[in-house]
Amino acid sequence: MIPYTDVPLVSCRGLQFRWPGSDITLTMDDFTVAPGERMFLCGPSGSGKSTLLGLLSGVLHATRGDVTVLGVPFSTLSAERRDRFRAEHLGYVFQQFNLLPFLSPVENVLLGCAWSPTRAARAGATYPARRDEAIRLLDALGLMAQLVERSRTGNLSVGQQQRVAVARALIGGPGLLIADEPTSALDTNNRDVFLRLLLAECTRHGTGVVFVSHDMSLARHFDRAVSLGDCPPSQMVA
Ligand SMILES: Nc1ncnc2c1ncn2[C@@H]1O[C@H](COP(=O)(O)OP(=O)(O)OP(=O)(O)O)[C@@H](O)[C@H]1O
């Protein structure tokens, strides 16, 4: 198991990516996320935030340079090992959640450790223990207890589904949580409360965070803010 405190979570040098057929190149000369760091990533629409998250999670491949996560350069992994590495070490909250609507919230959360023996073991030694951990996480993230086990996730509100998506990404304490605009559907008060809960759970697990949002008011919750494109630097200090 990789000790999450010993190596940078992410390190990219001379990274370039160009979508096929595009004449725009995303360039990151030096991009590092320290162990346990919480990074806020912003930038105007089209500046490449989602593309960068795709590179950090190994779904997209650099045109030049390499992405190293927890000391492992993605270029050294076969597609199968990259998938396994992602399941073991990364939690991802998608803009559209990608939950299974016909499963309960608890069943959705347990999917987060279904393909990772390490994360499953960290979540609990037995299935009932992992189920209890899924329930604890959902409760810690503010989902009402009566919704957790018997409701269909597809029937929950957008805000409730966000909590399920974050709990699924966090179960088993991955080294890095990558979140793509996960609070965009919440109002300002709920955003702050939810973010505090999310970050408290990350602290509990020693999980670092790369969090994308257009909402600059959220930057103050993070250790560091990084801009792709033209966010004013004065707004970038967390
Ligand atoms: N699948 C794709 N094929 C070709 N070009 C793409 C693809 N996805 C994104 N792009 C291009 O890459 C650039 C960056 O897009 P990306 O979605 O990463 O930006 P973003 O900062 O996440 O935008 P938003 O804030 O609107 O979600 C844009 O010019 C976009 O048109």
Automatic annotation (TrEMBL):
Q: Which organism is it from?
A: Luteibacter rhizovicinus DSM 16549
Protein name per Swiss-Prot or TrEMBL = Uncharacterized protein
Q: Where is the signal peptide?
A: none
Q: Which GO terms describe its molecular function?
A: ATP binding; ATP hydrolysis activity; transmembrane transporter activity
Looking up PROSITE patterns in the UniProt record yields: ABC_TRANSPORTER_1, ABC_TRANSPORTER_2
Q: Does the entry feature the keyword ATP-binding, yes or no?
A: yes
Q: What Pfam families would the database entry show?
A: ABC_tran
State the GO CC annotations. plasma membrane
* SMART domains the record matches: AAA
